[in-house]
Description:
Layout: H1 3-23, E1 27-31, E2 37-40, E3 50-54, H2 56-63, H3 71-79, E4 82-86, H4 91-103, E5 107-111, H5 115-125, E6 133-136, E7 139-142, H6 146-155, E8 174-175
Helix pairs in contact: 1-6, 2-3
Amino acid sequence: MTPAPLALRLAALALALAAGAAGAQQVYRIVGPDGRVTFSDKPPADVTAKVEPASAAAVSAATNGNAALPFELRQAASRYPVTLYTGPNCAPCASGRTYLSQRGIPFSEKTVTTAEDIAALDRLSGGAAALPLVTVGSQQLKGFSEAEWSQFLDAAGYPRTSRLPNGWRQPAATPLVVAQPLRAAAPTAAAEPAPAAPAPRPALPAGSNPAGIIF
């Protein structure tokens, strides 16, 4: 990647992040008619929904489970969550995971191991995806580059050194596509027993023809 395209991407990302930060100052907690709670920076179109302002802490606690994080880190994680997509026997994936952990970035990890996972990742990335793939908010970065990842994480507002509380544990990695449990086959109806063969008739003595049948 040449410096000029990267600089343009970073400039565009900085503008997008600034616009997102400005629009995220007022966050609404929306309770739908079915009781489902969502968060948005815009009031809902559904007039029957209950709307009330929500704090950043409430948003992060409900959406990312990051309520225990320091404020600066919690803000970045709630606005621009980080997801890492990895594969088996992938050295760059391990390097990316180590980098995020050492920098103290709270992230979720999705493993890509099956044909279904690969197809889902291709749809997600809009083409043939390369591993590792990391998303910072809606921004996708293919392949591991510490310098590039660092620049985008900086632009998203993540601290440059770890601010994770003592005892913090990253969530365990989960498959990108969760296999659905197989349903037990419905029991088949018991086969009806075959009708019994008629009992053989006793042989008639030679020369007898009780019914008078002419052959």
